[in-house]
Structure formats: C-alpha cells, structure tokens
Amino acid sequence: GKPVMIVIEFMENGALDAFLRKHDGQFTVIQLVGMLRGIAAGMRYLADMGYVHRDLAARNILVNSNLVCKVSDFGLS
Domain Protein kinase spans what residues (predicted)? Predict the structure, then answer.
C-alpha cells in the first residue's frame, strides 16, 4: 500500500511535562491559564467531533514558542 504521513505543526517547546519541569515555577498565572485554555479548546474540539482521547496527560500535550498548548498522541500506531 501507499505510505501514510501525518504532518503537524512544529511545537518548539516539546511535551508539556518536560517543559514544566525545565521551567518550574517560572510562569505567571496568566500564562498558565492561557496554556490551559489551549488544552481545553483541543478537548472541546475532539468532543464536538465525537472523539475521546483516552490518554490525556502532560506528556501528550505539545507547547509552541508562544506557550500555546495543543493535544497530541491519538494512539494511531
């Protein structure tokens, strides 16, 4: 068969769990709330589309250079 590729946005800061450990305590409340809003928006979109993530964890959230968080790892392997 034909190879399948998934192309996603580059998230400079990697996984949220490692990012939080690296920058422990260096975030303002406003920054943290913004990050949470990105996660909530992603989960809302999935729910609206009828999907359930089933493994939402900091290791499955990616962070870009603007501290925008996006849900990843949908178990497609």
Answer: 1-77
Q: Given the residues 17, 24, 55, 73, select the one marked as catalytic.
A: 55
Active site residue 55: yes
Number of domains in the chain: 1
Residues 6+ apart with CB under 8 A from 5: none
For 18-55, what is each residue's pLDDT tens digit?
A: 999 999 889 999 999 999 999 999 999 999 999 989 89
Q: Is residue 19 part of a domain?
A: yes
**Distance separating alpha carbons of residues 32 and 20, to the nearest angstrom:** 10
In a domain, 21, yes or no: yes
